[in-house]
Design a protein that fits this description.
237 residues, nine-stranded mixed sheet, 9 strands
Length: 237
């Protein structure tokens, strides 16, 4: 697997497993800005056994699987079930929905939908949207708690596209929680950040189709209470 970092929040006894790299090439990806170019030849990546050994001392009650989505592989497919079986904890999967592991052991899925218009999704991510939407429908039928989010990007992912996304989610279940996130500026790209009222307006549009819509301005992560259980030395080249 391509897990390169594990963090621990002692306040809520939760751990986060961070993947590096992704099966999408989103033009507005925030993680590109954080990591820059990485020398993968010197990057230590963990397998399942190593992940379990690192988590064992803290015995987490919640585990978040997040960041870049991996390529399909058997370890990733088994990961939620192995973690749940070992620690008896809640497992939350944050994903773009392109590659899904086995549903066994997963408590909650939060799936980011970039766009539903095929041409726009492919332009933005480099991938077709069909597999993501099919996996979203499958997750909706699984009985697992499901939520979703999208980034509103003026000039790219416009309010009309957010409306289409909300309409699609409603065909699965109008009660699925949905979050509209205001785009945060990525250096070198021409897209501007929306203001508070714009994001609010877009969330109201989504609310015509969904019963549980919230919105937020995007911001950098606050790691003030987070401890690293494992991290490598990311080297920019």
């Amino acid at each position: 697997m391509n897990i390169h970092r594990i963090t621990y929040n002692p306040g809520i006894k939760s751990c986060s497993l961070y993947f590096i790299g992704c099966n999408f090439k989103c033009m507005c990806c925030y993680w590109k800005q954080i990591y820059g170019k990485v020398n993968f030849r010197e990057l230590k990546l963990l397998n399942i056994t190593e992940v379990l050994d690192i988590l064992e001392p803290v015995k987490p009650e919640n585990i978040y699987i997040l960041s870049g989505d991996p390529v399909e592989n058997e370890e990733f497919n088994q990961l939620p079930a192995v973690l749940s079986g070992k620690f008896g904890c809640k497992i939350r999967l944050n994903t773009n929905g392109y590659i899904m592991p086995s549903m066994e052991g997963i408590t909650n899925i939060s799936m980011s939908i970039k766009a539903v218009t095929e041409e726009l999704h492919e332009k933005y991510t480099g991938r077709s949207v069909r597999q993501c939407l099919n996996n979203f429908k499958m997750a909706g039928k699984s009985g697992i708690e499901l939520s979703s989010s999208s980034v509103y990007i003026p000039g790219l992912i416009e309010k009309e596209e957010i409306e289409k996304i909300a309409r699609f989610i409603a065909t699965v279940d109008e009660n699925i929680p949905y979050r509209v996130i205001g785009y945060m500026k990525v250096k070198g790209l021409p897209f501007r950040e929306p203001d508070y009222h714009e994001v609010e307006e877009v969330s109201h549009i989504a609310g015509k189709y969904l019963k549980n819509v919230i919105f937020s301005r995007s911001s950098g992560e606050d790691y003030s209470n987070i401890k690293d259980l494992f991290t490598n030395n990311l080297r920019k080249v």
